[in-house]
Design goal:
alpha+beta; FAD/NAD(P)-binding domain; 14 helices; 24 strands; globular; disordered C terminus; binds flavin-adenine dinucleotide
Length: about 525
């Protein structure tokens, strides 16, 4: 019997990221993935800046950018009748430009078949035997104190695994979610599609107009070239199949070649079909993200149309929220109730992005045959608010009565250190070297104070688990004078930032007894009965 604190089922991007995060927090886990290797089809490519902030935190930003498409393809998407034919529209997504100002990092186009090997290598490097591909979960029993699972490897060998917690990152069909009887709400089978992975040199049609997506609009065919390397490897998605009289079975290599030639507008183009996958876009969110010892993450929790590119992003962000909480509970630093805040914080996010992705798909006319090009609603690829603006409300957040000032939660993001919000990016310097506030977060709770915040800083040193404290203006320099304004603090104020980079508590100014206030704030942020603030 294998005994492990956390069992992860599913080795897609979400399961692999969960494994990396748990290791980052010092928690061993076992990940099982039934396939022998990582994704063979490109699927997701748009990693948003919030996701790249996470991957920066765990030291993966450079490797992912190295595996991604050339940066020049990341600033535009365009519509055309064919690549050789008339152009219909160009769109420069606002969320790309906005990210540059709002974050220390930026979006990255990295196709899923290139991303997953990077994640797998890092997950495996954390410890021998932590990641087992070619191994399937075949039986699961859930108890009050954990789970007992039976896993089977490719040779048919079976083993039992006992785990305190289980992360079900087993995809949209999630056998675990189904076994637990967790229902989903939303719209099923919004449209159908095939994803064609191909080798075809499109350089002569795209080199002077680099784009992340080339949407092709013809009366007989609607499809999208998805940029992978910007030269000879592409994804081509044919959408709304049934409305145009196609069936997935038709998409033999010969037919795929014909369709791609039609979309390019070149009848003798050399095309090599590398793979084809049929899928249906649905917009469905689980009614609960936790049941006992089991947590749903990624597509298992929320399945959404890829119109907007949020599925993978939302899923990997789930794991960041969950992993530090599991670690804190397993280490005895937090109350078990902290784990309930995963559902309270992440399910509303899953609902919002799924709904927005559905509205994008509907606005693009994906549910009917179109005679003319149908352009998307204004929110498409401009969802700055959805990317940065989640406002968590849960028992782990100490509400200070303030609210982020936005009128449109999809489009707008106003940096705010209101408890429940992502701690804003502010450029700082240390010994003359530039860094961001975001570079301070990621492993422990962090206490940031204004220049008169030394009493908070001294109080933090006596708490458990230990807080990392920085007095901005003493330990770090705020040369542009942005910190206090962005964080809503007077010079004597303080803010407590969780390992996931979200603000848990804020005191706008100095108080009489910082030790007592801080101890209470930490108890609440960790959902524990008071430890008395002592060491
Ligand atoms: C065409 C297309 C384009 C997309 N573009 C984007 C984009 O630009 N940006 C974005 O964010 N998202 C995008 N997405 C969505 C993204 O691909 C998914 O959200 C993402 O793959 C979900 O990851 P996951 O790890 O939750 O699930 P999956 O990738 O589905 O992985 C689940 C894994 O669990 C394994 N598994 C299941 N059951 C078991 C079992 N019993 N035992 C062991 N293993 C098991 C499966 O084999 C599978 O590998 C796109 C999707 C498509 C189809």
């Amino acid at each position: 019997m294998i005994d492990v604190p956390v069992l992860i089922v599913g080795g897609g991007p979400v399961g692999l990221t969960a494994s990396i995060y748990l290791s980052h927090f010092g928690i061993p886990s076992l990940l099982v993935e039934r396939h022998p290797g990582t994704a063979v089809l490109p699927k997701a490519r748009a990693l948003n800046a919030r996701t790249m902030e996470m991957y920066r935190q765990i030291g993966l930003e450079r490797a992912i950018r190295g595996a991604g498409m050339p940066e020049r393809f990341g600033h535009m998407v365009m519509w055309a009748e064919s690549l050789a034919g008339a152009e219909i529209k160009r769109l420069e997504p606002a969320r790309g430009a906005a990210s540059q100002a709002l974050s220390v990092t930026s979006n990255c186009g990295c196709s899923q078949d290139m991303l997953e090997p990077v994640l797998r290598e890092r997950a495996e490097a954390a410890g021998a035997g932590r990641v087992r591909f070619g191994t399937q979960l075949v039986e699961l029993q859930c108890h009050d104190t954990g789970v007992v699972a039976r896993i089977r490897d490719g040779a048919g060998q079976e083993e039992e695994v006992s785990a305190r917690y289980l992360i079900a990152a087993d995809g949209a069909q999630s056998p675990i979610r189904q076994q637990l009887g967790i229902e989903r709400d939303g719209q099923r089978d919004v449209y159908d599609s095939v994803n064609i992975h191909c080798r075809v040199d499109l350089t002569r049609w795209i080199d002077d107009r680099p784009a992340g997506l080339y949407l092709i609009e013809q009366p007989e065919l609607r499809g999208t070239f998805m940029t992978i390397n910007g030269t000879d490897r592409w994804g081509f998605l044919v959408t709304s199949l049934s409305h145009y009289g196609y069936t997935p079975e038709q998409f033999t290599p010969g037919f795929c070649t014909e369709v791609i030639r039609r979309a390019v507008g070149c009848q003798d183009l050399a095309v090599e079909v590398l793979g084809v996958g049929a899928w249906k876009a649905s917009a469905l969110v689980a009614r609960q993200y936790r049941q006992g010892a089991v947590f749903l993450a990624g597509d298992a929790a929320h399945e959404m149309p890829p119109t907007g590119g949020f599925g993978l992003n939302t899923g990997v962000q789930d794991t960041q929220n969950l992993a530090w909480k599991l670690a804190a509970v397993l280490k005895g630093d937090a109350g078990e109730a902290l784990l309930d805040t995963y559902d309270a914080e992440r399910r509303p996010v899953g609902q919002a992005v799924t709904h927005s992705s559905l509205l994008n798909a509907l606005s693009m006319g994906r549910t009917a045959r179109q005679q003319e090009a149908v352009l998307p609603r204004k929110e498409f690829l401009n969802e700055v608010g959805l990317i940065f603006g989640a406002h968590y409300r849960s028992a782990a957040m100490v509400d200070d009565g303030s609210r982020p000032a936005v009128d449109d939660a999809v489009l707008q993001y106003v940096p705010s250190a209101t408890p429940g919000c992502r701690a804003p990016h502010v450029p700082l310097t240390r010994d003359g070297r530039s860094l961001s506030t975001l570079d301070l977060f990621g492993r422990e709770f962090v206490l940031l104070t204004g220049p008169h915040g030394m009493p908070w800083h001294e109080a933090a040193a006596r708490l458990r688990p230990s807080l990392v404290g920085f007095v901005i203006g003493q330990h770090l320099q705020d040369e542009n004078g942005r910190f206090l304004r962005s964080y809503g603090l007077a010079p004597g104020g303080a803010v407590l930032v969780r390992p996931d980079g979200y603000v848990g508590w804020r005191a706008a100014d100095a108080v009489d007894d910082p030790a007592a206030e801080l101890a209470e704030a930490l108890d609440r942020a960790l959902c524990r009965e008071s430890f008395g603030g002592g060491a």
